[in-house]
Structure formats: C-alpha cells, structure tokens
Write a structure and sequence with these properties.
Histidine-containing Protein, Chain: A; 7 helices; about 325 residues; about 35% strand; alpha+beta; 4-stranded antiparallel β-sheet; elongated; Immunoglobulin-like; 3 domains
C-alpha cells in the first residue's frame, strides 16, 4: 500500500461515486481513474468536483472520464421544451417524436424561427437535459409578420395541397423561390384531382406586413374547390398569380413584377377546408395582425375542418 491511510481513503472515495448511474474505478498507487455515466450534465459536474476535492485532500492524482446522460433520451421528452420556444410555427425533430436518442447522438431540429438568436435560446434550454448529445439546427429565419400567421396556422396534412412557383416570362418552375428585380412570379395552388370537396383560401403576406387576399377576393367570391382551376395529370392546378401578359389580356387577374419595394421574404399561404374559412369575404388588403386574429377566432370555434395547409416563400432580391 502506498500509505497506511490508503484503505480509509478508498472508503471515502466510493460513496462519492454513488450518484453515478454506473461506474468503474482503477487504482494504481496514488493514481485513480474513474469512468462512468452521470444522469445529466449537472450531475457530472457535481461528481467531478467532489472527486477532485477528494483527490486534492488525499494526495491522489485523479483522472475522470464521465459521460453525461440520460443513457436513452426520448424525442417526446424534449418536444414540449421545443414547443415552448416556437416563434414562427412548429419546430420538429428530424428523428420523429416516437424515436429515441442514444449517447452522443445528434439532435436535429428543423422549422422556422423569427430570429437567428432563437437557436441560442433553444440551446440554453435543452443543454442541461440532453447530456453529451449535440444539437444541429436546420431552421429558417422569417420576418415577424410572416411568423404572426405561422403561429396560428393549424397543423394539417401537407400531401393534400401544395404551392408551385414559376417564372412569368418562361413559364418554367422556380424551385428556389428566389426572384430578382423585374421578374414576374407565377403562383399556382395544386390539389390532387381526387379531392373534389372543400373551400380554398389563398393569401400573400408581403414584406411590409400587409396581407393580400388572392382567393376569394374583392373581384370574385369563388372558393369552392370543384369550380376552381383545371385538372391536368391528376392534379387540379389553380393559378392565383399570373404572368404580366395574362394580366394585360384580362385585368381581373393578378400579376406583379419584383421591384425594390418588394425585396425580402413574402409568403403565399393556402388553406383548404371542408367549410368556408370565413363567413364573408375579407377586404382586398388588411394587416397581418387583423388576419391572424380572425384566423385564430374562426379556428377556435371548432366549426372548421382543415383538410390541408401549404406555404411557400417568395424571396425577392436585388
């Protein structure tokens, strides 16, 4: 034995390991190595500090390799924390809520946020409970006006409805959603042809916080899905923003060119519901706050069955 006190020093060491979920100790002379699993980061810090204090007082060299748990982390256990920090619609885990993370796994989070600093708040909240796992964010910052609407949109199937973007000059699809000065965005709502019942409401939230009601609008009360658009290739295609050439031929249509005042992110929102979303037509334009409140109130009644929701960003750049 290195010293007569060695057995009693070992007896003082072992209780310090009790808070660990599992551990292994190797002692050689005055060198001690501890490996183990702590319940969480705080628990690891507490044990590490206690071991260091013991080693300093006993004259031992302490080496620790402690993992921070929990050993298994359920995705469902951290989703409520994510839900509490949403600023621009739901945040999701790529793994899915029914799955679980092992030690040292990466937790991937996707969705939209109002500010890049939102990820700092999420990190601060989750770090104490995820142990040694890493966070990876696949999030998109959107402006506050868009987020006001995103925060009240209902959760609904996405396969029932989608939004296609195109170029007014060529008719080609615009997969990125990026438009530059002078370009003419095309917008088309697409619904599977086998869905024939329902009411469609489409709006655009612009960079200034104004909402433009596209369908129905002040010129037309049409919103019943069966009478909208044309069916092609098993898809009902409903053009809501047209080419400038189409507008010149029929000025009841809507079209616009990207100009300096449009720079930033606008959003197209389409909601397909079983019943008309509102009892009366909305004005041609209104504030985001007004629309968000109206949407919140109409959904709160429980009388509206939402069949599908689709959103798409128009990113206007210089």
């Amino acid at each position: 034995m290195p010293s007569p006190e060695w057995p009693s020093q070992m007896l003082r060491l072992l209780p310090l390991l009790k808070p660990l979920q599992r551990w292994q100790v190797e002692v050689s002379d005055t060198r001690v190595t501890v490996n183990g699993l702590a319940a969480n980061i705080d628990n690891r810090q507490t044990v590490s500090t206690a071991l260091t204090d013991w080693a300093d007082g006993a004259g031992f060299d302490m080496f620790t390799d402690l993992a921070a748990g929990p050993e298994v982390l359920l995705a469902a256990d951290i989703q409520p924390a994510l839900d509490s920090l949403t600023t621009c619609g739901p945040l999701q885990q790529t793994i899915g809520e029914g799955a679980e993370y092992g030690l040292n796994d990466t937790i991937a989070i996707s969705g939209n946020i109002m500010s890049a600093s939102d990820t700092d708040a999420i990190t601060q909240l989750l770090s104490p409970v995820i142990g040694d796992r890493k966070l990876r964010f696949d999030t998109t910052p959107l402006n506050a006006e868009i987020c006001k609407i995103r925060n009240v949109l209902p959760v609904a199937p996405t396969q029932n409805i989608s939004i296609w973007l195109g170029d007014g000059d060529t008719g080609a699809a615009n997969l990125s959603g990026i438009y530059t000065t002078g370009q003419n965005p095309l917008v088309e709502v697409q619904v599977p042809a086998d869905i024939t019942d329902g009411s469609l409401w489409v709006m655009i939230i612009d960079t200034d916080g104004e909402v433009y009601h596209i369908l129905p609008n002040i010129n037309t009360s049409a919103h019943a899905l069966a009478g909208l658009g044309a069916i092609e290739g098993g898809i009902r295609r409903i053009r809501v923003l047209h080419s400038v050439a189409a507008f010149q031929a029929d000025q009841s249509l809507r079209a616009f060119l990207i100009s300096e005042g449009d720079f930033g992110k606008s959003e197209v929102v389409a909601i397909l519901s079983k019943e008309p979303l509102f009892d009366t037509r909305r004005p041609g334009t209104e504030s985001v706050s007004s629309v968000a409140e109206a949407l919140r109130e109409t959904l709160k009644t429980g009388k509206i069955t939402v069949l599908g929701v689709a959103t798409r960003i128009i990113d206007a750049r210089r």
